[in-house]
Amino acid sequence: MQANAANRSGPVSLEERFQDMTGNNKVWRAPLAGLASLAMIATMGVTALSANAAEVTADSEVTLNANGGYFGSDKDKTTDTLKAGDDKSFADNLYTEKLPSYSGRTFTGWYESATYGGQAVDPTTVEAGTTLYAHWTTSSKVVTFELKKTGVTAVKDITGYGDVVKVASGDSVEVRLAGGDKLADWQVPSEDQPGDSKLFQGWDKAVADAKAGDDLKPETVGAGNFKFVFNGSYKVYDQTGKEVNNLTDGVDVAAGTSVADDLSVISYAGKNADGSYNKVVKWTYELSNNTTGEFKFGETKIGEGQSYKLTPAADGFAHAWKVQAGLGDTDSNTRKFFVTDGATFDTAKLSSYTLPLVDGWKANGKWYVTGNAESTAKAYVESPAQTYPLTEFTSSTKVADNTYVAPAFEENPQAADYELTFDPYYDGQPAATVVKIKGDAYLYDQVPTPTREGYKFAGWFATAKRALESENNSDVKNDSERLDTTAGLLDETKTVADLFDTTTEKTFYAGWKLDLNSGDFVKLLRLDNDAKTYTTASFREYDSIRTDLLKTIKKETGVDLKAQLSLTDSALRTFIDKNLKSDDALKYAQVLQDAKNNLVKVANIDTTFGQYGFSDVDALTPHAVDIRYAAKQGIVKGFSDNTYRPSATILRQDFAAMLYRLAGSPAYTVSASDNIFSDVTPATPHYKEIL
Fold this sequence. Notes:
Elements: H1 14-18, H2 38-43, E1 61-65, E2 79-83, E3 106-111, E4 131-137, E5 143-146, E6 152-153, E7 165-168, E8 172-175, E9 191-192, E10 198-203, E11 215-216, E12 218-228, E13 234-238, E14 243-244, E15 251-254, E16 263-267, E17 277-280, E18 283-286, E19 292-295, E20 307-312, E21 317-325, E22 335-340, E23 361-371, H3 379-382, E24 391-393, E25 403-411, E26 417-423, E27 433-438, E28 455-461, H4 464-469, H5 475-481, H6 483-486, H7 496-500, E29 505-514, H8 518-526, H9 536-557, H10 569-579, H11 582-597, H12 624-632, H13 652-662, H14 687-690
Parallel strand pairs: 1-4, 5-11, 12-20, 21-25, 26-29
Antiparallel strand pairs: 1-2, 3-4, 5-8, 6-9, 7-8, 10-12, 12-15, 13-14, 13-16, 16-17, 17-21, 18-19, 18-20, 21-22, 23-24, 23-25, 26-27, 28-29
């Protein structure tokens, strides 16, 4: 049961009172719980359809999938198409034309998924090109909403809903619903029935949990009713600056509550001599028993069962000026507000104005006075880059004339092209991932999650230094600084421009932590090369590091792991957990993991002799890559038999020759006076290079 809003105090605005109302006469309106507002009265009965996300034309189509059923008499015809038609909407034909059949089952509506568990699509908001799936039920039961004498009225036009939602004799609404599916908002009646002294508050059961066979009854509070009566020409504008109509329809208001004053009612019998307008600031009421009095919005409490007729008081007018937000007389989105002479205006109300899209620019929230002629407003959006030589219009500006205001613009990051680089940042890493993306796109599903053998990913960081530090930091510290979580890289609600403003090129660096435990340490301690997986030379290096590490562990901790290697894996792991601190065990394991990462797998190398330029050098030769590089650069020459003799001793004279070649073999004329060595003669090999 919903809370009884009648116990609240103070007037309630349009946003609170009527926040879910769409103005679509094919959509059941939201519960009118709480205190009434004038703007709500003005918007009752508005019949504008909700705008489709994708433009619908007369030739627009949707694809209908029978989802187990078939169309017409051909049981093999499981799909069909439906055109919008001249109305450029699927509202009146989606649930009445081309409906499928399914033996022993009843059609319950069109859904966006073939899987049950969703909500039927609102026919007024279906987009062109959509594929819709039929849902079915084997039950004859329906969800029933009781209406008779209960304060709720059925929707006025349900021709587009067929038998999926229908009014039964005006006393109830019946909705077909398959098991597992949920009621959609548009299927639920929730518009108050005016004039019955009851204000609808909601249903006695949770609509979200409703299933076929349920019977829901409305809950109401006592109410009064009032409506406007005008004699003469008046125009009315709501708190968003839009002109509204249908002001003479009555509406129920919870008894004991007041009504917020959020309309501007203007007499259009003629302007005043100074060009100002006459705004109604005082109202009188008349009850059904002919009682009259002053009606004060925000103060007068509505009596239960009373019917109020409101008219402007004879002395209830004040001079007011028009504040118009827009871009000229052709702007259909123009907003008009009326402010009493000398008063200020809350510019937050201008947020209701739908700002135009200007390529590369966005409104910066500021407004400027463009003069007192409507046509002057256009120029200030056509050249948004210009400097405004105008007066800014703010909430502290006193209004003393009819005023036209236009929005100011600034560079729009949403229109920018961003290049974001995600660098794995470790030796031997794969190429960085570069994401090229528009500022108005969402990044969350394009942020990569890199992998690295023996390590766990610690997050993306702003600098290379911070990424390196993550290896030794705690998970808690890393989680507090990683940008993928703290800076919103994975936030599904933020665009790229929301995250980075005008900085269009950024690099993120991956942080890593060794993903090891005592079990991994045991595996590294026992690693062998019996299967000749690794080259002999590289495994010899690994084994040497392991031997030295066991000595270091004994020296630093007094624990002799070498003496325990005969234990089973489980027993050795238990011994490590018991005798070594976890941080120490991780540190030692990391030494072996790094050594393992340097092992060379035989399967990954070409062992053909001669590939490095010398007959006795292959990929297994220590420093083979460096030897090849030095030979290619002419730094080393080898011997006349095409050998390098990699294990031979290098003499100082040979090394001098290498240095000379490394320097580019600079021109030099040999001079005995340069010889400072007693054991070097012209007969010494590389005599010139030595000098």
